[in-house]
Design a protein that fits this description.
Blueprint (H helix, E strand, L loop, with lengths): L3 H7 L6 E4 L3 E5 L7 E7 L14 H17 L7 E4 L3 H4 L8 E5 L12
Antiparallel strand pairs: 1-2, 2-3, 3-5, 4-5
This protein binds adenosine monophosphate.
């Protein structure tokens, strides 16, 4: 399948990997919008939240759990952070493979990025 994030999971496109288990893969965003910007994705190709089925419940739960683990490991858990899932055109989703943005490293503003 011609999917950028599936290729990252398979190692066909290099990434700065943070975490991997049998269901989930995580890596640093190539264009960070905040000091700590990690993407957490399912290994299974699921295009968007609109495509999640009941049988994906374990995967989706694992992604949140992994986000929590990574937040602790990279040192943003205590100060706080934001998790973001864009969905579809109006949601601004650019890569059609579900991903949670883990955004941290400073005070978040209401929109996206750091408060100024
Ligand atoms: P979204 O707009 O929510 O679909 O987010 C897609 C994200 O993927 C953006 O923040 C991009 O910077 C990021 N991205 C695109 N290509 C790569 C890549 N090869 N490695 C890491 N992050 C990427």
């Amino acid at each position: 399948m011609d999917c950028l994030f599936c290729k990252i999971v398979k190692g066909e496109i290099p990434s700065d990997k943070v975490y991997e288990d049998e269901l989930v893969f995580a890596f640093y965003d190539i264009h960070p919008i905040v000091p700590v910007h990690v993407l957490i994705i399912p290994k299974k190709h699921i295009e968007s939240i609109n495509d999640v089925t009941e049988e994906d419940a374990e995967i989706m739960g694992r992604m949140i759990f992994v986000a929590k683990k990574i937040a602790k490991e990279v040192g943003v858990a205590e100060g706080g952070y934001k998790l973001l899932i864009r969905t579809g055109r109006n949601g601004g989703q650019e890569v059609p493979h579900i991903h949670i943005h883990l955004l941290g490293g400073g005070q978040m503003r209401e929109g996206i990025g750091l408060a100024r």
